[in-house]
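During the second year of the project, the team shifted from modelling isolated chains to modelling whole assemblies. The rationale, set out in the original proposal, was that interfaces cannot be judged from single-chain predictions alone. As a representative example for this report, we include one of the complexes processed in the last quarter. Its constituent sequences, exactly as entered into the pipeline, are reproduced here:
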Amino acid sequence: MLQPGLIQLLTASDLADLRIDAIPKLQVGFRPGSFFSSFRSQDGEAKLTFIPQQILLNKDHELFEDGDIHRHLYLQNLSTCPAHDSPTARQCEFRCYISGCSQVFSTVEDYEHHYNTLHRHVCSSCQRSLPSARLLDIHIQEWHDSLFSILAERQDMVANIHAHKRMCTHTHYVAHSGLDLDQSMHTVSHSLFPPPPKYQCLVEGCGSKFRTREQRKDHVIKIHKYPSDFMFDKVKRIKNIKIAKNNMLQKGTSMEVSMSVSEPEGVCEVLSDQPEEEEYMEINHSLEPGILDPASNPINTVELSTDHDTAPILSVTIQPTTNQQRPQHNRERHSYRVPRTVCFGQGSVQGFRGHGRRI
Amino acid sequence: MWRLNAVRHKAGRQGSDLEEFKFKRREHEKELRRARKDSQLVSKRLLLNDDEEEDGTMDTLASDQVLGPCITTTVRDDDSSQQPSREAHQLLIEQPNSIAILVTNLCGPNPQCRLEAARCLHELSHSPHSEVDSLRLRQATPYLITFLSGQSPKFTELCLYTLGNMCPDSENVRDMLLAQGIIPALNNCIQIHRTNLAVVEAVGFTLSQLISANYVTERIIPAVLASGLIPRLLSVLTPDSQFGLGPVIECAWCLHYLACSNVDNGALVAQGTLLHCTSLLVTLGVAVAKGSIEEGIELLIWPLLRCVGNLLLSGPLGALQPQLNDSRLLAALCAFPQAFLQTHPALARESVWVLNNLTDSSVFCSALFYLNLVPALIQLLPFSHGINIMVLRVLGNIAHQGREYCLHLAQAGLLPALCATLKMADTEVVTFSLEVLGQLMASDPQLAEEFVKQSGLPVLEAIQYSNQETIRLRATHLLEHHLLPHCPVRTMP
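Output from the structure prediction step:
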């Protein structure tokens, strides 16, 4: 139990060398105390306040409780017993300090696994956690890059024009019947727009890029043999959060399950049809410190996944945590949603694909 | 130790008896904790009959009717869990002049009657029944006190334990005992019977009951300090291997109660208390190192640690140094936590508390490094029960001494240990860890680099998102002032 060094020290026979006044005192150039005074915050308050302090404990202090109880058990003839159960030292637990998370772990490894799974590679805009840095980059590019989303919309418009051959959804220019808008100058003007964005293949090392999410999805399914129910680009179902949040708090189940697929349609203010929605590999989490936007406030996290009921391969089942508050800016997106009943042409997809942020 | 021997016998029972015993003990412990919270923690001791004496006395007893019920209650085996019947004690008390009769016997010519009367009074003093209280017994106290200066050890022992059981009952009783001269009597008694360790143990017990009660600081403790009892208590502080630890334990608890009352600790130190207590702690540390941990040794270590811990505040450490000159004290204070961590974590914590009070001086901090004791402290950091907080205080004290101390701490492996404590659930642990870390990094930028190499940066960044302001502010402060140049810059795509 005792370390050998300690044993040696205590059982040494030569007492002369063990006098305190014989031990050389460590010399110091300067005291760190002088540094502390210079490290005050702008408001002049010292942030680090520790100073050495001797502590006097009186008879009734709580630190003395266990010893007193032991003494009185002895006085009352109830103390020693070979197999008595007195409190043993416990190893401290570890806690995740990300606000709103507050999960507790018994080992450092468990904590670190939790942290690396849920709190790394977090998008600073929407607080979604991605499994890897690359997917985070792709996510940011496809969802939070305003240029990308504008280009994507324009591409949709161009696609719609091709599809409808009648009305330009952007300018509402209606071509003459029979006349392919492509051949008109109108289309030419669209082609002067910047090239459409490329959706990258999700598999690292592939490098393929696609014009649309569907194409990417097809590619990943066909070429990389991903299952067809794999979670691809997730639609930002922000409004579902409230409902889902209630579900979660009530059921206490994991996110994927609680985000019942059947609900969104009734709830959704927006409206691309369910099957059209593509899912992304995302997990609940909170902010990754590495790409922390210094201007943003400390986060309160967790966002609910709106994934389908089948668990995606790469996503993580999260234990529901305490009440989360949605970041304010997400709620603002609701107002940009197109109402369900708007129809852009016969047989067309109702509503817009994708949800770029309009800045 | 006679007390522990009795208990060991009980504990030797098998199976359900043992479980029942443990259950009762747990329940009892809960009661004691409740009582302590209400400042009502009081214990009384019952001196058990030696077997051979009992057989002898039965035949020679006087056939006084009043003594009848008293006799029946004394007949019991050494299982003191059997409570004397209410009727017996009540009967005795309700009889008119019963106490007066006992007192008469107490002072009478017949030695056996004296002994039996004393035993009766002793049992009444231990009685849990409320009708039997000390005020009823007060007729007897002047005599009991007088007899403390007598020569008969067994009789004196009974008188002592009777008085000891009466002390905690009320302030009135204590005032009365004080007025009747209990303190000089105890002083005399311990002098006369210094070779009889059973009596010495009884004196220690009675004194500890007197001074551990509530509201004693004004008159009782100054009287004890002035009485000349201290040197006598200190002379007991050498454990007798044959008799056991009983007397030393009682005297040590007396010294603890005196020191923690903080009435005149300078006087205590002047009479050699610190020197004797630290010597005994070193002796116990050596015993622990050799592996000979006697049963009940923690009952002795506890009050000594408390006494020393509090006496360290009685003056500047530099002035106290001559009494603290044995560096093995530091080794002992590091050995106790290692030895008792699993059985008595509170003792481990108090041992580190004493170290905290010692490390306010660079002399002792240097000594900790010289003796290579810091790694042993760092190994205590994973443990809760307030142990890690106390260790962090000690480490903070050391770091505060200067740059070289901080470097030595880092060499001893503190930085990786702090990376772990920064992740702990207890906010106070994290706060102290940040403080210590701050001192380290402020003393030398090299240490900040080292911290980053230990992957400490993400840990601090994570703390920034805590909803606890104390740690958030400190983490931010450290990041901004010491770690900013080391932060990797992530570029957005």
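Confidence is low (pLDDT under 50) at residues 34-44, 235-336, 354-359 of chain A. The first strand of chain A starts at residue 94 and ends at 95.
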